[in-house]
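Protocol step 4 of 6: structure prediction from sequence.
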Amino acid sequence: MFGQDIGIDLGTATVIAYVKGKGIVLREPSVVAVNNTNGEVLAVGHEARRMLGRTPGNIVATRPLRDGVISDYTVTEKMLKYFINKIGGKFLFAPRIMICIPSQVTEVEKKAVIDAASNAGARKVYLIEEPIAAAIGAGIDISKPCGNMIVDIGGGTTDIAVISLGGSVVSSSIKVAGDKFDEAIVRYIKRKHNVMIGERTAEDLKVNVGCVYPKIQDVEMDIRGRDLITGLPKTLTIYSSEMMEALEEPTNMIIDAVHGVLEKTPPELAADISDRGIYMTGGGCLIDGLDKLLQERTGINVMIAEDAVSCVALGTGKALDNLDMIDRK
């Protein structure tokens, strides 16, 4: 197999890979299960995610990326190697890989991503900023001299950028996104019901009944957790109105960050944004009512991109077409 070009959305929650000419070929949770005794990787992706919070002492299921950046270098490298092999088997030539990163990462964090991908078998590594990849993936022509605002809410970070002429003019990245929503739900249930639930249960709640804008009809869901008073398992019914209360704080932080970026936007571009609206991408933007709430608070039309979860990966994939041009530069 000739060295392929691969685009990777290395997310805190999910890794999505795009192969030039094939489209999206891999979508797996970024979770790795490692045996602590000998450092051997036991499972990656879906299998490892099932082990979260359910492993014996010598096995640890971890997420090697936290808040959009690498927190465990060795495990990230092993995870990347596993995914690259899964995509293309053994390559005749190592693939060129483009990876997207949050907009406000340090040089050290960038180098960690490049080194991890190189050691995992990449011939050459390119980096692209998440909001730019998301804009390309959402089908926006970013090469024109007019302002587009992108709010990309992933698992670990929310990236907000105003893009014009192919680059970001004003950008901000905050570490409040899908994971913080889950944590807020865990805290809320513990505080209000005295019941401890796990990350996965919190995520199920967020997906099924989570909302940040009043619903016409209250939706409910049954969950199980551990009663903190008796120490025994307990079943609860949680309503979407409670979820709204639980998610209020992280939601406000995201909306404040969008405000902050709008305040710093040059007036000409701000006029473009109020004409064209704000585009939302990433899995986190699918929480019920987030678009309505943002629209209400900013007074600007808000649109959720088609296939919001895959936007960043699709954009990274489309950017692969320009690799030869980047190389020439």
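Step 5 (inspection) to follow. The chain has a mean pLDDT of 90.
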